[in-house]
Amino acid sequence: MPTQRELDLAKRLLRLRVLDAGPLKEALALQARQHELGREVGLDRVLYHLKLLPPGALGPALGPTPLATQPFPGYRLLGLAGEGGTAVVYRGVYTANGHPVAVKVLDPIHALRPDFVQRFEQEAELLIRLEHENIVLGYEVGAAGGWHYFTMDLVEGATVQEVIERRGPLGKEEALSVTLQAGRALAYLHGQGFLHRDVKPGNLMVEASGRVRLIDLGFIRRLARELAAAQEEEEATTVGTVEYVSPEQARGRADLDPRSDIYSLGISLYHMVVGEVPFQGETDYEVMAKQVLSALDTQKVKQRRISPEVHYFITKMASKDRESRYETVAEALVEMAGYLPGGPVPVDLGAPPGGPPAAPPPPAPPAGLRPPAPQGPRPGSGPLRRPRRRR
Question: For the segment 138-163, what is each residue's pLDDT rounded down to a tens digit?
């Protein structure tokens, strides 16, 4: 029978989408049959026997975590901050001056694929280069002890997805404030020539003060007008989170433009005020089919007595016909700003599972203030945000 460690591994493989539920059930059934015959066979051996994993895929994954080995020079990890589809984020400090940081570490299973490593490093380099108050700051990217990692600003708060799970839908002003700030981050990215392609509440960190930061650029790519035709065809694949992708993104079209991110932002706003996504299904394929073919049912918006202006923003941004959406995020921002007071709206983060309500974060530093630079001599020393690579 599978041990608790093996069950945790099975959940992890599903979360990472390395395996589907069907093949995993087959592996667990085979392991159970071996147990009935008096043979104790590890789940990893069964997975290799069924050729469900490439050789070497589980070696690093079954070993000690970075939290136990502390492999990253210049940083000390303090605890787990969160887990995503391809990486784990740890809380840590920069040992030279004690500055708090978040350390994002690529899962070792995905590190076996060069395309995942390339995308991970691209995200790091963009976070280091881009500067916007609603995008998390990147510091350094590197590899050490067999792990690929990068460090960034530690945001004290919760993802909007977590807030919804903790306390239910957001109020009108909370939701519009989050959407407005996320829109500002997207407008900046579009102005720099990039599409985000994975806008969703899970990629938006919010502090109790209401300040929002976009935290994940893992699926970012150049706007189609910036790509050569051949590269457009090469990149014409469906990526992102199926519950939020635009119809054209679900089709895998290469000619995506800012209106695709606008659609995802509209679906995110729907999720914030209703408490669930509009298109659901048992499989990713079923959800993507609904993104392409099904009209947005706003009945639940009406049932929750959402204000007419929020209803309008949702239907305008999440129109199936991209010609009917806002042409640019800036157009949406101008209209939204008229329904909000000045500055971010404080957000009730809710109580984390098994714990007291989250404490408000300390006041944010003035816009443009950088974290303290490292003190003392250091190889390749310079400002903390210099895009150094450690190997």
Answer: 999 999 988 999 999 999 999 999 99
pLDDT at 378: 33
What is the set of active-site residues?
198
| Whole-number Å distance between alpha carbons of 40 and 28 | 12
Q: Please name each of the domains of the chain with its CATH number.
A: 4-62 (no CATH), 66-155+370-390 (3.30.200.20), 158-337 (1.10.510.10)
Chain-wide mean pLDDT for the chain?
Answer: 84
**pLDDT classification of 248: cutoffs 50, 70, 90:** very high
Average pLDDT over residues 278-284: 90
Go through 169-194 and write b for each residue having 16 or more CB atoms within 10 A of its CB, e for each that does not: bbebbbbbbbbbbbbbbbbbbbeeeb
Lowest mean per-residue pLDDT among 75-79, 108-112, 202-206: 108-112
Report whether 284 contacts 242 (CB < 8 A): yes
DSSP 81-112: EEE-SSEEEEEEEETTTTEEEEEEEE-TTGGG
The pLDDT, as a whole number, for residue 55 is: 63
- What are 298's two structure tokens? 């706003």
Structure tokens at 119: 């995308």
Measuring CA to CA, which residue among 270, 105, 281, 128 is closest to residue 200? 270
Q: Is the pTM of this model over 0.85?
A: no
Tracing tokens 């599409």 back to the chain, one arrives at 195
Query: 378 with 97: CB under 8 angstroms?
Result: no
* Helix ranges restricted to H, the chain: 4-15, 21-36, 43-49, 59-62, 66-69, 114-129, 160-167, 172-191, 229-234, 247-250, 258-274, 284-293, 299-303, 308-317, 329-337
Render the burial of 301-328: b for 16+ CB within 10 Å, e for the rest.
Answer: beeeebbeebbebbbbbbbbebeebbeb
